[in-house]
Amino acid sequence: MRRRETSSATGAKSANRETFRRWLEQFAGQQVDVVVEGCTGWRFIVEECRAAGVMPHLADPAEASIRIHGVTRRAKTDKVDAKGLRELGEHHRAPESWIPPAQVLEIRTALRLYHDSMTGRAAWLHRIHATLFHQGALQQTQTRSWPPQSVARLRTAVVGG
Questions:
Q1: CATH number of 4-99: 3.40.190, 3.40.1360, 2.60.120, 3.40.30?
Q2: Which residue from 57, 103, 121, 137 could staple onto 132, CB 3.0 to 4.6 Å apart?
């Protein structure tokens, strides 16, 4: 790895796929390794690196921090971390994490979306139940189902008949 090839994308104005893809174009046809800290945004960085023919290495953030800064805690800055990750990569000391195949990543994303949707659904149901209870449309003991008389009272209250 050459120093210039492993430096951070300092010319980037914003962190998104298009900007990163343009930054990667400078390495076309070269053998380049990139060490990426496994935190928010790592997935699209790895995907774009692979698409550009760049070899990504996913570093465990906690272990990388210890190897960069030592055990003592210092202020975390992107510039210091980028330099540290570059140096770990140059010396082949980056604490690598497994990069799952695309199918595993897609399944994880679908499961997270499902979990978030169900959590949101439960929150909305609790809000609706609380509102209906305060409006007198539900009795305190009615928690799981809405009897026909409650639905009728709700229609009367909201729609007007």
A1: 3.40.1360
A2: 137
pLDDT at 81: 80
Q: What is the 3-state secondary structure (H, E, C) of the chain?
A: CCCHHHCCCCCCCCCCHHHHHHHHHHHCCCCCEEEEECCCCHHHHHHHHHHCCCEEEEECHHHHHHHHHCCCCCCCCHHHHHHHHHHHHHCCCCCEECCCCHHHHHHHHHHHHHHHHHHHHHHHHHHHHHHHHHCCCCCCCCCCCCCHHHHHHHHHHHCCC
Question: How confident is the model over 45-69, as pLDDT tens digits?
Answer: 999 999 999 999 999 888 888 888 8
Q: Please report the pLDDT score of residue 23 as a whole number.
A: 92
- 10 Å CB burial of residue 148 (0-12, 13-18, 19+) is exposed
> Torsions phi, psi of 96, nearest 5?
-75, 140
Compute the residue count for the chain: 161
